[in-house]
Amino acid sequence: MRNVLIVGASSGIGGALAGLAQPQCQVYSLSRSAVVANVFRHFSCDVLSDSLPVIDEPLHGLVYCPGSINLKPFARIKPEEFSADLELNLIGAVRCLQHYQRNLQAAEGASVVLFSTVAVQTGFPYHATVSASKGAIEGLTRALAAEWAPKIRVNAIAPSLTDTPLAESLLREDSKKQAAAARHPLKRLGEAKDIAQMALFLLSENAAWITGQVMHVDGGISAIKT
Questions:
Q1: Three-class SS of 113-166
Q2: pLDDT tens readout for residues 154-173
Q3: pTM of the shown model
Q4: pLDDT tens-digit profile of 34-88?
Q5: What is the DSSP letter of 197?
Q6: Which helix (H) or strand (E) holds 41?
Q7: With DSSP H G I counted as helix, E B as strand and the rest as coil, what are the percentages for the chain, rounded to 5?
Q8: Which residues of 101-135 are buried (b: 16+ CB within 10 A; e: fewer)?
């Protein structure tokens, strides 16, 4: 059975992925939550400050799900906020990838999945911090895909606004949900399972010839106008 580590599996996209992956993968989860249900093994850990747990088995997949959505006018953003977003989105991923690189190398055909955002390649106002930090993720994706080929595949997913706890502050009211959905050609918000299905595909052997890619799962907003 394939071993997959999901960082941030307690809710949202990570939680949806853990549920989808269970029948075909042995899921390890790592998050700040004390318990994550229905996984093979859970580690409670802050990836930015704690020592990362040791896993003895090979890892056929690693998915880094933590992220942030801090939307402000550029003039109101403090440099410390840029640093905090970069720490969570990039440095946390780097720590995990360096720590578990040997586990990935020990597996046959390992796959890494990272998360960007549609806002990196499609400019949106008030997205300076998230676009900057997730833009770094896209650069890391391509650099590691080149460095780790052919042993380990590395890809990223760039979602649009998705109805998860992370986006709760933006979607509290029905009117805001309806307005956000209307901006997408497919006229609905993304759901955690929409993004998790793509992550599961990238982890699988069905994606064995895909690496260095940023896959847009965004209701069409980055590509078409209606």
A1: EEECCCCCCCCCCCCHHHHHHHHHHHHHHHHHHHHHCCCEEEEEEEECCEECHH
A2: 999 999 988 888 777 778 88
A3: 0.95
A4: 788 889 999 999 999 999 999 999 999 999 999 888 899 999 999 999 999 999 9
A5: H
A6: strand 41-44
A7: 40, 20, 40
A8: bebbebbeebbbbbbbbbbbebebeebbbbbbbbb
